[in-house]
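Input record (Table S2, row 512):
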Amino acid sequence: MSSDSSLSPIPPHLQAPAAESVGEAASPLTSQSNVEVHEALQAPENGVSAEAPIKGAKVGKKRKADTSPKAKVTKRARKVTVKEETVATVASAPPPAKPKAAKPKKAACKVKIEQETADNNLAHEPGEADSPVATKSKKTRKKKDEIIPPLAERTTGSKLRVGAHVSAAGGIHNAIGNLLHIGANAFALFMKSQRTWKNPELNPEHATLFIDGCKNHQVEVADCCVPHGSYLVNLAHPDEERKKQAYDSFLDDLTRCHKTGIKYYNFHPGNSAATTRDAGIKRIAEAINQAHKDPSTGTVMPLLETMATLGNTIGGQFQDIADIIKQVEDKERIGVCLDTCHVFAAGYDLRTPKAYERTMREFDETIGLNYLKALHVNDSKAPLYSFRDLHARIGTGYLGLRAFHNLVNDKRLHGLPMVLETPIDTKDENGKKIEDKSIWAREIKMLEQLVDMDIESDQFKKWEADLFEEGTGERERIGEQVKKRAEKDAKPKKKKGKMKAETDDEDETEED
Ligand SMILES: [Zn+2]
Ligand SMILES: [Zn+2]
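Output record (zinc ion complex):
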């Protein structure tokens, strides 16, 4: 497993934009106001490079003449001042791993960042921006190329590869700085803007910086990186034109992975709207077969993600995934990414050791554990059989901390990339949405420490109780919604599964 024994300094060219807009990460955009930040995980200096990582880099053919960060910002969003003040709190947050070396100085806990930023998440999409829009620090730092200390150091010797879906705003190379920042040993990213159909050329400079960044920081990209496919892509679509559009984007992403040394590529299987499940499954398998035969994809392995919903969504049942794999010709180049939140919402329990084993056995018998290549590690704001895709922070949802204790102590999963997509959005003192990446840094350390931890220990019990408490409001709120929906569904004689799954539109953005 790759790991740095020391705090790896993040070179300026890999430094990440500090405050991406909410929506960049692959977590549902649910606001959670009670941020709890353990002081030991505070960055002494949550600074932002004053320098654009890449100067004059070109992305995409269709760029307009004036693409300077400033022009872009003013065009797309108003100038906003973000003040991110981190507060040293809090009792309920689990502490990080026993600090090994350079522990962040508590005295420097208070951080202020003032910067121009766009509050429009599109302004930050990878492949769209070639310099870190909105990250020009206005505060003078000691030096221009000052090194940003990570929020947490990467753990050495852990049995897990754990990380998060990090931002690649400004180019994929920025993901490296972002993963180092939170002490991650695994990561996901979008290979390009995930909300448009554009397939701009992969910027060769970004690709080189990405490859070099991985090498220089011992990021074993083939084993620990699992990009996430575009939400728009639906390989099951029956319409020829839409199908081609989806396939082109899919193929383009696989090509990008191949060019950058990435082995896995995770995507949502698709939605069989306007057609049958079997026809949808057939189309997905055909697209995968076709992509496998295209030399531009090298040996990249597409991973089918388990989904939370039923109805037209393919992937809500293990059988869906198994049926796709059956029709994939090259079985060496197809895998599965299990999302803990999704499978739980879809009715696969993970909460007790027994339930966990039952679910994994079912996975093995239906799909085959040999196909399991990656995990999305998320708690769920919605209960079992709710068929709702609402991620919660680890330990705060209906899964609870024990489910994750089961997961990380399953030796079969050790070494597989585990990617957090938990919500890290919170609000600053002005009520503006900001992201708090120390939540991921904290969750990574906690998951690592859950390995071999006694659930009867005081530490475990404290974490469990505190996190349960932290999530109570959201669990109750969503639980109530789910109950009402079930009551509503019980009345008319509509087809249950289908309606339940496809008409969720209450208030949350449900995707990932
Ligand atoms: Zn999700
Ligand atoms: Zn997903």
